[in-house]
Every structure is written in structure tokens, then in C-alpha cells.
Amino acid sequence: MDTIFSPTTILVLLALTAILYLASRAALPKPLPGIPYVPGSEKNLLGNLPLALAHTKHAGRFSSYFYKPAEDLGVPLLQLFMQPFGRPCLLLCDGREAQDLMTRRAHEFEYADFAIDLHRGAWPGTLAALKTNERWRANRRMLGETTTSRFVNSVGLEAMYRGAGELVELLALKARLARGEVFDVREDLKNATADIIWTYSYNGKLGAVSSQIEALNESNKLLDNQVLAAKLPDVLKAIIDISATSQIPLESPLGITHQKLVLRLTPKLRRATAVHDARLEHEVKQAAKRLSEKKLPADESAMASMLNRLQATFGDEIPASELKAVQNELALMMHAGQKTVADTTAWAFKYLAVHQDVQQKVRAELKAVFGNVSTIPKEDIIPANLPHCDAVAHEVLRHMPIIPCHIRTSLVDTQLLGHFIPKGTNVFMPPVGPSFTSPALPIDESKRTGNTTSRMWSHSHTDLDVFRPDRWLVKQEDGSVKFDNRAAPMLTFADGPRMCFGTKFAMLEFRVLLVVLLWHFELLELPRELVDFEANDFLTIEPRNTRVRLRVVERG
Fold first, then answer.
1. 141-411+434-552, what's its fold?
2. Is the distance from CB of 208 to CB of 196 less than 8 angstroms?
3. In 245-316, alpha helices (H)
4. Whole-prediction pTM
5. Which of 52, 135, 461, 519 has its Cα between 20 and 30 A from that of 295?
6. How many CB atoms lie within 10 A of CB 18?
7. Which DSSP helix (H) or strand (E) runs through 540?
């Protein structure tokens, strides 16, 4: 016993106890002075994580925790402690201040590493995986023309119209086979948007939707999604598998390292990467060969536009690194664009099935504008005055903005709503919650750094939690209504230099899909037990259930 409790042993135990105590104290959150936080979180080694996990268990998704503490405390700016030994991150729940931060203060706040890591593992070297540096600026110049209204309204519209037409054929077939019963459209919408983006990117046919039509015609019955997925083109299956790993940095304590290991060590994902890279490299090399032969017009596809821009910069000998950049950006275009518009369209289906009065207004508007033609002409879609349709699109995006949070990091010591913010602090800005889908929280106007007075951020907005598309409509003197895209609060695509580069494409694609699908189908009410607006977090805010009942509308 004397040996066990010798003075040396006691000193060692005391030293270890002291070290553990000091380590635990060091691991406790270190609040930034003056900024509110959830009481008690500063005394927990895990900070806000236990509360966030409890919220996730109750709500079924994590992303709504981004604005829940702000609503509970009634403050627009608070700090969260999300990792031991890590510095606090900030939660900014005010759309007006968030817009100012992303636009006028872009020199103070950079696109965050956390956001970059969600794309860097699978799609390195792309706009979404880069800081705002010279490589990022070079890629933006390369993409240049593809982000303009002129290009999207011509090359993009052609791809969208063709894809929407094939989707109509598929859904009409499924509606016939379903015989008035409910069926799922999640994969149908994703396959259609994949076809659209592939055609826009390469001026080729991917064949995702046509493969499903062929399979259903052969079986003459509705098939399980897994059976249909096996029929998809190999490159699309590869894209889906690779994209699925982008969730890993969100869920794993190892972050992007875990994702990279999975991509490199999992046989299925190694094969997917090989198939994906080989196909895209082939497409780019074939196009580069045509370019050298002066046989690749710039307005043929997004890839053609980018290669022509590179030729103008480098001449006929485009560096391999630049060709790889083209390949990478086209891959990101598919990854980012396929699921987002598909999910948004699925949300629109859900809202319109519940709000039959809204759907009937849109349908009446379409008939008034287009008459009773069997198929709406492609060239009539963009110039058509469709205020109710546009209002629905924006109201869906206001309620379900797809991206759960915009994140920026302070580049310098600065101020935010009167509080000192040290360099390297992450600021999370959810595009839902206070000032978007619930009333704005009170702010001392003298504490703001910007002078934005847009009516978008007016405190007169009411019932923000209600789906009411007519909030986007302004009544004219002659009794008609005009759509106003700044009539209500929305920051779905972020803002400033790091705003989503595909915004114009996504908004037009959403419009084309709404117009064409509502022309050919009526969304019938679902049984009450099947109506829900539950969501899953998977980089995007996706609907948990995407069931529909469709009635085919006979035209002409």
C-alpha cells in the first residue's frame, strides 16, 4: 500500500488531474464578447451540439437548427459552439444584413472553407471548390458567356424544352399505368434535369428519361425505382454515386479526408470515378479536336462556348490544365444543377397539389396566354407574360430555398451589427427563418453597416410562414397584375460575387418545367394521410416524399 500511494504516485496523479482539468477548461467554448449565445452552451464541452442533435431528432432534419436559436432568443445575431477547441461560429438571421455582407462587404467576407469542402472532394478545381483567387477568376471568365441571358435563352432553352417534352411522355405513361393511383416522381424529375444539363453542356443525348420510357413500355406496369435505376446510362449512375459522397464532410468528424478515402478505397466508387472521368475526358477531347478544325461553333453547347473562349486566350494549343478545368466545371454543372431544380420542381408539385386554388389560377393563366394548342411552342415560353406562374416559382423558392445555409468567413477583424468579429470567423446565413419565412427580428438601425432600403426587406411583410404566391404580384391601374421579383424576401441563390453562377439557367429551367408540365397535367389532391411537407437534408433541402396523382390534360 505504501508503494501504491507513494509521494511520487500522488504527485503524478495530481499532475494528471490538473492536466485533465486544464484540458477540459481549454476545450470549453470561448464566447466572443457581447454576442448572445444559448445559455448553458458555453459550459458544455460539446457546446451546441447536444442541442442541435436533440433538435434534429425532434424535427427530422438538422438545417432548421440554423435559425431556431435566433427565434428562441429573439436576436438576429448569435454565436454557436459546434466543435471542441474550435472558435465560435456566428448565426446571422437577417436577410437584409446578409445581403449586404455578401455584396457590399465581399472584400471582408470570403466564401468559407466549410462550404468549399462540400465540393472539393468530388469536384476539385471548380468554382464551388475554390477561394476567390486567380484560378476562380479564370474559371469565371471561361464560363463567361454560358451565364448570360442570351446564351441561356437560346442554347439552354433548346435543351430544357427537349427535356421537358420527354418528361411529359414519361409521366403520361406512368399516369396511365398508375390508373389514378399515387406514384413517385423523384427519380423522374432528377433524370429529366440530368438530360437537360447534359444536352446543354455537350449538345448530346444522355438518355436518362428515354431509358425509363423504354423499360416501362416493355413491362407495361409501374416498376420499382431500383429496377429503373439499373437501366440508367453508366455515366449518370457514376455521377449519382460520386455526388452522394458530398454528404460525408457534413456528417463525419474527419470531414473531407473521410470523403477522399471513401472515393479512393471503395471499389464501387473507384469504378464510378473511372467511368465518369473517362466519359467527360472523351467529350472534351473530341470537342477540342473539332475546335482545332474550326468545326465547333461557340453557341452549340456550354462546352463549345468555354473551349472557344480558351482558344481566344491561348490559341490552338490550349493547355491540358485548361481542358481539365472545362471538364471539371461541366462535372460541377451536372452535380449542382441536376438535383436542385428537380427538388424545387418536386416542392412545386407538393404545394400546387395542396393549394388547388393557386394551381387553377396558373392553369387559367396558361390557357389565356397560349390558347388551346396541343403543345406550347418553345419560342413562346420566354416572352410570355405569366405573373401567376412566376409568383408560384418564387414563392416555392422562398419557402424551400434548396440550399440550407450560405456561409462566409471574415477575412479581417471587422464589425457585424455593432459587434467585433475577429478574422477567420464563419458566418452562417440561412435563407429561411427570421426575415424570410417568419417576421424579422428587431435591429438597431444605427448598428447596420449598409444602407439597403429595398422593399424586399420591408417590415410590412406579413404572414411570411404562409404559402401565398400573390404576395409577389402588384395590381396595376387597369386591374391586371404584374410580377415583381423584389416584392418579398428571398436569397435562395445567395448574392454578390459568389452568387450561384447557374441562377439564370435554374430559373428558366424551373419556368419551362412548370409551364410545360402544368399544360399537360393536372396535379390532383392526395389523400390526407399522404400530404406532408417533411424534408431531408442532403446538401439541398429535398422533399421527403414526392408522390403525385396526375390527370393527363387532352389538348388541341
1. Cytochrome p450 (1.10.630)
2. no
3. 248-251, 256-265, 267-292, 302-314
4. 0.93
5. 135
6. 10
7. strand 540-543
Strand 109-111 relative to strand 183-184, pairing: unpaired
CA dist 448 and 333 (Å) reads 36
Give residues with Cβ within 8 angstroms of 242, minimum separation 6: 122, 263, 269, 272, 273, 276, 335
Q: What is the enclosing helix (H) or strand (E) of 213?
A: helix 208-219
The three grid cell numbers given for residue 531, joined into one nine-digit string: 400530404
The Cα–Cα gap between 368 and 248 comes to 48
pLDDT digits (tens, 9 = 90+) for 31-74: 999 999 999 988 888 888 888 888 888 877 888 888 889 999 99
Three-state secondary structure along 152-187? Answer: HHHHHHHHHHHHHHHHHHHHHHHHHHHCCCCEECHH
Q: Is the dihedral of CA 381, 384, 389, 391 positive or negative?
A: positive
Residue 79, φ and ψ in degrees, nearest 5:
-110, 145
Q: What is the pLDDT of residue 162?
A: 98
Largest CA distance in the chain: 101
CB atoms near residue 532 (< 10 Å):
13
Residue 443 CB contacts under 8 Å (≥ 6 apart), including other chains: 76, 94, 97, 417
Residue 367 has pLDDT above 80, yes or no: yes
| pLDDT per residue as tens digits for the range 288-300 | 999 999 999 999 9
Cell numbers 477568376: residue: 137
Distance CA(11)–CA(15), nearest Å, equals: 6
| Mean predicted lDDT score pLDDT of the chain | 92
Alpha-carbon distances, residue 285 vs 248, 275, 306, 318, 352 (angstroms): 32, 15, 13, 11, 44
50 has which bridge partners?
A: none
Report CA 61 to chain centroid distance, whole Å.
16
The 10s digit of each residue's pLDDT in 433-467 is: 999 999 999 999 889 986 666 667 876 778 999 99
Domain residue extents for the chain: 141-411+434-552
Torsion sign, CA atoms 334, 337, 340, 346: negative
Nearest to 341 by CA among 170, 505, 201: 505
> Three-state SS string across 442-480, please?
CCCHHHCCCCCCCHHHCCCCCCCCCCCHHHHEEECCCCC
C-alpha cell of 31?
Answer: 464566447
Residue type for position 553: V
pLDDT of 243: 93
The 10 Å CB-count burial string (b at 16+, else e) for 197-225 is: bbbbbbbeebbbbbbbbeebeeeeebbee
Taking the CA atoms of residue 390, residue 162, residue 333 and residue 264 in that order, the dihedral angle to the nearest 10 degrees is: 130
pLDDT, position 454: 67
Burial (CB count within 10 angstroms: exposed 0-12, middle 13-18, buried 19+), residue 403: buried
The annotation status of 89 as a binding-site residue, yes or no, is no
Looking from the CA of 53 toward its CB, the CA atoms found within 13 Å total 7
Contacts of 524 (CB under 8 A, 6+ apart): 353, 548, 549, 550, 551
Tell me what the mean pLDDT of segment 108-119 comes to: 94
What are the cell numbers at 476? 396595376
